[in-house]
Amino acid sequence: MTATEQSIELARAAARAASDKLALNVTAIDVSDRLAITDIFFIASAETERQVNAIVDGIEDELHKFDLRPVRREGRSGGRWVLLDYADIVVHVQHEEDRVFYALERLYGDCPVIDLQLGELDPSAKSAGIRAGTGADTGADAQSDTAAATETDVPANAQANKN
User: Fold this and answer.
1) Concatenated DSSP letters for the chain?
2) Which end of the chain lies in a sparser environment, N or C, as judged by fewer CB atoms within 10 Å?
3) What is this structure's pTM?
4) Element (H, E) at 85
């Protein structure tokens, strides 16, 4: 069993929305063979709690266009790891530190990665020198590549927000 086309389209829509909010390391994993409760785990990360919540808002707004609302929402108040359960797709938006610690990609490393077709939309692909939306950015090397990115790789508006 593989993820349905509808689930894949929802993951791609979530990926575009997350990328618009400058999410890092955007990926989607087809967990349909391992879990009966959902088709896809969508995972994105951010550097701050505020950005985690902004990404979540963007994803909810985008999926609302498909007339979807999450069945369950967890972690919104903390802004460290927010989970949006849309039944066919479960969205995880994590603070970078939590993403490294919990390593969902490693737990589901034997599951296929979905091509999110982000191309140049993924800001983490530009800073880490990786191809976006293919899962190639999920390993330890990509995490160290992202950490090694210089401030010149960060868009000007993001640098202004850091100060």
Assistant:
1) ----HHHHHHHHHHHHHHHHTT-EEEEEEE-TTT-SS-SEEEEEEESSHHHHHHHHHHHHHHHHTTT---SEEESTTT-SEEEEE-SSEEEEEEEHHHHHHH-HHHHTTTSPBP----GGG-HHHHHHT--TTSSTT-SHHHHHHHHH--GGGS-HHHHHHH-
2) C
3) 0.73
4) strand 81-85
Count of CB atoms within 10 A of residue 80's CB? 15
pLDDT in tens, 107-118: 999 999 999 998
Joined tokens for residue 26:
């955007």
Give the integer Cα–Cα distance in Å for 95 and 79.
8
In tens, the pLDDT along 95-104 reads 999 999 999 9
